[in-house]
Amino acid sequence: MTALSRIHPVTLLLGLAGLTVLAIWFSLDTGSAPITVADALRDPGTSEARILWQLRLPRALSAFVTGALLGLAGALMQVLLRNPLADPYVLGVSGGASVGALLALLLGASGFWVPCWAFSGALFSMLLVFSLAHGRGSWDTTRLLLTGVVLASGWGALISLLLAISPAARIQGMLFWLMGDLSYAQLPAVGGVVLALVAVTALRFSSALNLMRSGALHAASLGVPVTRMRLIIYISASLATAVAVTQAGNIGFIGLLAPHMLRLGGGRDYRVLVPGVMLLGGTLLLLADALARSVIAPRQLPAGVLTALIGIPLFLFLLYRSRTTPHG
Amino acid sequence: MVDTGSAAPTLLRCIGVDTDVADVSVTRALQLDIQGGQCWCILGRNGSGKTTLLHTLAGLRPPTAGRIELDGRPLETQQRRRIAQQVGVLFQNQDDAFPATVLETVLEGRHPHLHSWQWEGASDHALASQALSQLGLSGFEDRDIQTLSGGERQRVAIATVLTQQPRLLLLDEPTNHLDLHHQLSVLETLLALCREQRRAIVMVLHDVNLAARFADHLLLLLGGGKVRLGETKQIMKTAVLEQLYGHSLVRVTTPTGPAWLPG
């Protein structure tokens, strides 16, 4: 295949928006109580309708916002590291955020301070990936992934340590949260604000992001203030990852799946990719969560298990293909 | 040694510029005036700092000492976007980590001329297709840059610089990967820009015969910070080239002018 698909950006984004609406509808209709959106709209006073509006809707919105944040974080990290395999989970950034959040929980912090700790963990983890994975000259995929894997397992060990010294009563909740779970989801107020903030920033700089794909010097020669850009992307990606992790724990591969699917569908330009990746990332997690609630109902799976089951084969396929496609 | 014969205003001026890379001294107290309509060629041995000097002229790395002015204003005080509206750079290598079409890549040249929320318009597309056709790439618009051959990718990169419409083009080995026909046609296209639109070119070449044929000014990096610069017809002498490359040369006369063969 030598020609790339060229779908009109408006068509692509409208299609994705339509898909998002359908996914929200599907998610609201799915659950152990036999209630659908149509019933709840016809009869808003019933207790089943309240289940839909007060339990399922916040959960669906939370899933959407988390997925959108993860998709965006992935797309931003891919530019920053100039590697389409970058993903907050694969590179251990989610792990860093998890350790931060768990540490905060263990020390008795709550509310606003948990995402702050998660943010510090994510920033620190990104900094480590950066300084360690930067070989001579450009980013080397092997080095990058190796750094990510080692970091992620390091964070994993720290998480085990934190769990081992945590009071028994808390462990069940912590474990479920770590696996990537949305069952305690509330209306995603903080997540929504952060998503809006990061989205506006990413959109504002989206054409510069296009240039950063081809390297810092190339971008600088075309007028991008590279140092400032890098800092902005770095902070935005860390913030998005940290908030996503605080909302729903460790959910992997959305940041890899969403940008990749969009690029295949013709959304290569970051001016299209940024809004697209939010819609698609959100939709993917909505669907994963709806499936996680229904496949072995009434028991629930953590949504992170499903995204990993879909994401890992794709990741391996991409890695395989990056070896076989001609470069340069 | 500065050419003051022409009345054209100076586009880029170096005042006492020292440049270094690693432990190599590239220039010492370089005085250089580049004017619209001039075509400069930088010649030097491997590792003499040709690329470093080019990047310094582009403002992509600071000089060790001295000052570089673009349109009479110091380069380091100007915004990158403002510089990019005037100066285009062709790099030695293109490294494509992501898929993109040829058209998308060439349109990136319009970035410094667009606002952050603005999309490319009809005039930008017209410039892109003009550049593509000048480089013999019409019909390549939807091709993935990751599937192009080395020479095709190089021509896409040159088309991107042309689409940028800079007044000063800094080109690091523009003939890299190009076959004989394309080496000549690309340099002829560039020279025509120089002559007809009064744009200035500074390029790094390894082929002295192409330099003799296309450049009107030369800048020789002799090592140890020593530089020799001036008009091609005054500088391009067998003895000078032999000193530059440390290799004996034979001058032959051809219908298109003098040429040098390794002796």
In short:
The complex is a heterodimer of chains A (328) and B (263). Chain A has a single domain, classed as ABC transporter involved in vitamin B12 uptake, BtuC. Chain A contains 14 helices and no strands.
List keywords for this structure.
A: 328 residues; mainly alpha; ABC transporter involved in vitamin B12 uptake, BtuC; 74% helix; B: 263 residues; alpha/beta; Rossmann fold; 12 strands; 29% strand
Describe the fold and architecture.
The complex is a heterodimer of chains A (328) and B (263). With 328 residues, chain A is mostly helical. Chain A is built from 14 helices and no strands. The radius of gyration of chain A is 20 Å and the shape is globular. Chain A starts with 8 loop residues before the first helix and ends with a helix. The model of chain A is unreliable at 324-328 (pLDDT under 50). With 263 residues, chain B is an alpha/beta fold. Chain B has a single domain (10-262), classed as P-loop containing nucleotide triphosphate hydrolases (Rossmann fold), CATH 3.40.50.300. Chain B has helices spanning 50-57, 80-86, 102-107, 122-134, 150-164, 180-197, 208-214, 232-235, 238-245, and strands at residues 10-21, 24-35, 39-44, 65-70, 73-74, 87-90, 168-172, 200-204, 217-223, 226-231, 249-254, 257-262. In chain B, strand 1 and strand 2 form a beta hairpin. In chain B, helix 4 packs across helix 5 (150-164). The longest helix of chain B is centred in the last third of the chain and has 18 residues, at 180-197. The two termini of chain B are 30 Å apart. The model of chain B is unreliable at 1-6 (pLDDT under 50). Chain A binds chain B through residues 1-4, 6, 78, 82-84, 138, 204-205, 207-208, 210-211, 213-215, 217-218, 220-226, 263, 268-269, 271, 325-328, and chain B through 55, 58, 60, 79-85, 87-89, 91, 94-101, 104, 108-109, 111-112, 114, 116-117, 119, 142-144, 146-147, 150, 153, 164.
